Amino acid sequence: MYTALRATSRTLAKFLETKFQADPLLSGFFGGGMVVSLNTPQEMNEKPAEGLSVWLYRKSAAIVLQPFRVARRGPPGGVFGDGGGA
Known about the structure:
Layout lengths: L1 H21 L4 H4 L4 E3 L3 H6 L4 E3 L7 H4 L22
Parallel strand pairs: 1-2
């Protein structure tokens, strides 16, 4: 799992860096000192490094997939104009 996250993070960082360097508005920043880094924002402050921090992390399925309730309401005035909007 962590190998896949690391590989995906590296691929995403390289992709973003390439796109930023090719962008006319961002190339001056990302071609001149700013980086796309896999370091956390705290680690970038310690370096010091300027740029974009990209880091993916594993999230527990128990947390991500918790069921949630959505209040579903019909259109105002009800479906048949009977005032039953809920």
